[in-house]
Specification:
The first copy, chain A, is of the alpha/beta class. Helices cover 32% and strands 29% of the residues of chain A. Chain A has 7 helices and 10 strands. At the A-B interface, helix 5 and helix 6 of A face helix 5 and helix 6 of B. The complex binds adenosine-5'-triphosphate (2 copies) and magnesium ion (2 copies).
Chain lengths: 228, 228
């Protein structure tokens, strides 16, 4: 479902160029569960933003369901993202002065196909699955760090996307809450949803079936998970 | 150095009251290294904000170096915080459109006693210690999550505070970078600086000498670290 060929991403800052990705090749089949690991600054979020159609590569190709995504115009690009991808940001990116419930309902207003008949109910269900049924009306500033993270997770799931991209989804969660969240992901994966998740925690990577290791903008290792 | 007696913190939202802290008692001596653990939403950040003089309790007392802090007025309250405490926020709270270097120099402009003669050099040194000497001019949006976290850490250290309060300082860091950051903390603690750090990772808690466990706004356990 995902095919990346020789992807690069260079950030220009005046005369300086930061080579965040230096030629990444990656194929992910439908229904896979992949963990991406690597040092701070190695390019993981940059890769996730490209996969999530939030950014375009400097060079190389990205095929999503056979469509050459890096060549799409603004509208088509955004539509692909809204219809097929659920994205959980490393820094959550929730709307301030907007309740947890409204934050989670937001993707449903972009859903032109109107698949989800009752957005309110879908949002309540998504928030309940991550343990926040008693925090629906709280705004981000009235939530703990781990609660904000879980609102971001619920928001990514509510549209029932085909692909979930999760950037450090358990970074602010205690072990027990992490296990609850990972079993939600495992459940979705059992239903055929493709999951790619960035983590720095080896215990979390064990939930995946394949680990891809990034270093300095390149994939250094790509192998099945052993010891599950 | 820190004495908390029966501290409570209630957040009012319309008719609803959230009892984030329900009567916390805690004494921390100068030079201690304490880890605070507990489930998401158990009250850790709320306690840290009270300790850091960023918030006031609903009831109870907080003595910092023998001074009854909860009764200080706005100015005295802020001065105590700026002079004695270095705070690392769970969500970093860096200034956007401001370079890493300028973000780290910020506390030095509040330092009325002018202890630090060369703020620029102190900031460069703090950023170098967390591995960011090649990212001084980058703004937060041009930094990875773990790099932003490290800028927040450098900012808390630059004023050479007597007490460091770190809320999940390694939440976005890979194991190797975490070890580098924890050895910076260990180093500071060896010099007599008091460290209180919130973490959900047992490996990180092992760097401390005492673990305090919060659950539903109360301290459930307070014991020395074994198995170091
Ligand atoms: N401003 C606020 N208004 C209402 N409720 C709040 C507010 N701030 C925090 N809370 C609630 O208080 C409780 C404790 O929050 P706190 O941020 O201290 O938790 P925490 O232990 O740091 O959690 P985490 O590990 O997820 O960061 C949470 O249930 C949260 O929803
Ligand atoms: N807009 C930008 N301009 C300049 N450099 C950038 C920009 N965004 C990211 N970078 C740099 O690109 C590199 C890769 O960043 P990225 O966010 O992908 O890292 P990461 O692997 O997600 O790190 P972490 O584990 O810390 O989140 C970093 O060194 C970062 O400083
Ligand atoms: Mg990242
Ligand atoms: Mg917290």
């Amino acid at each position: 479902v995902i095919e990346i060929k020789n992807l690069t991403r260079v950030f220009k800052m005046g005369d300086i160029a930061v080579h965040a990705l230096r030629g990444v090749n990656l194929n992910v089949d439908t229904g896979e569960f992949v963990a991406i690991m690597g040092a701070s600054g190695s390019g993981k979020s940059t890769l996730m933003n490209l996969l999530g159609c939030l950014d375009k590569p400097t060079s190389g190709e990205y095929f999503l369901d056979g469509i050459k995504v890096n060549e799409l115009n603004g509208n088509a690009f955004a539509t692909i993202r809204n219809e097929r991808i659920g994205f959980i940001f490393q820094t959550f990116n929730l709307l301030a002065r907007t309740s947890a419930l409204e934050n989670v309902m937001l993707p449903l207003f972009y859903d032109r196909r109107g698949r989800i008949k009752n957005p309110g109910a879908a949002a309540v269900e998504a928030l309940t699955r991550v343990g926040l049924s008693d925090r629906l009306e709280h705004e981000p500033s009235q939530l703990s760090g781990g609660q904000q993270q879980r609102v971001a997770i619920a928001r990514a799931l509510v549209n029932r996307p085909a692909i979930i991209l999760a950037d450090e989804p358990t970074g602010n969660l205690d072990s027990r809450t992490s296990v609850e969240v990972m079993s939600v992901f495992q459940n979705l994966n059992d239903q055929g949803i493709t999951i790619i998740l960035v983590t720095h925690e080896p215990d979390i990577a064990l939930y995946a079936r394949r680990v891809v290791e990034l270093r300095d903008g390149l994939i250094r290792r790509d192998s099945p998970v052993t010891g599950r």
